[in-house]
Amino acid sequence: MTPPEVHLSIDADDGVRLAATRLGRASAAVTLVYVHPLLRERRFWEAVTIGVHEHLCGAVSQITYDQRGHGDSQAPHRSEVTTVARLARDLDTVLAHASGAVVLIAHGEGAQLVHAYATTHREKAQALAGLVFLNASTDPPVLQRYLRRWPQRLLRLRRHRGLGAVTAAGEAVLGYRLVHPDGHRRGLGSAERRVRVDVLAAYAGGFGFFTGVAMGLRHIPSAVLAGEHDPLVPPQRAVRLADALWADYDVVAGAGHELPRTHPARVTDTITCTLDHVLRTHLDQSTGSTHTPDTEPRRS
Q: What's the per-residue H, E or C state across the chain?
């Protein structure tokens, strides 16, 4: 049986409405907030959130949300360019609806969004209770050549009056290639096409998860889970993120890039193990324990 959900409408600071879903009690002691990857939507997490809810008997709250212009969330005004920093401000707005200790869970390019949040909201990011990264690395996403060049060219075209029809045609062609490359659907069509161009251009610009920011997050219980046969984020790239954060690290044998969908049980296990670490850390702090947290990542 699918657990009951509460649908939320969250207003960003510029008035854009963000669609979100809460699973579990709003006043829970721990809230898990999920950051979906590039051009996806909150339903990407459905198998995982249901698994966590059932595994923990609804003891924690879980929030999934659609980034602006994705899924059921409103797209910004035509004059607005959606940047990674803008998405980080939206994430901060969503986090304001979380209760208790907050654990961020991000997939793929969501790691770069967490990096942006940790850069622009440093104190709030350092107050997070836990971090879980899936199929993620310190590096910008590996995009095909046309995905690196097309979006930036379309952004330049937008600045020229009289070329609106050309720009619209280019955005439509790009959307078709994303959804139907070589005749096969990739399921990347949930984003409004102007936002799709913006975020592709932003991520293709070389935005990564840098060591200086990661150092400020090393005190937070963290985990990185990789797929053995992930063509976009090979395990050797994911391990660099784990090393930067001093995070626990594991590889799912035979898995690819979509662990939340193909191996939700392993993702659920990683989340609950991180929650156990989070709760033990909070218990130590509340009882005045002098327990020293791990300073090196655990490998399996």
A: CCCCEEEEEEECCCCCEEEEEEECCCCCCEEEEEECCCCCCHHHHHHHHHHHHHHCCCCCEEEEECCCCECCCCCCCCCCCCCHHHHHHHHHHHHCCCCCEEEEEEECCHHHHHHHHHHHCHHHHHCCCEEEEECCCCCCCCCCHHHHHHHHHHHHHHCCCCCHHHHHHHHHHHHHHHHCHHHCCCCCCCECHHHHHHHHHHHHCCCCCCHHHHHCCCCCCEEEEEECCCCCCCHHHHHHHHHHHCCEEEEECCCCCCHHHHCHHHHHHHHHHHHHHHHHHHHHHHHCCCCCCCCCCCEC
Tens digit of each residue's pLDDT (9 = 90 or more) over 92-101: 999 999 999 9
**pTM for this entry:** 0.85
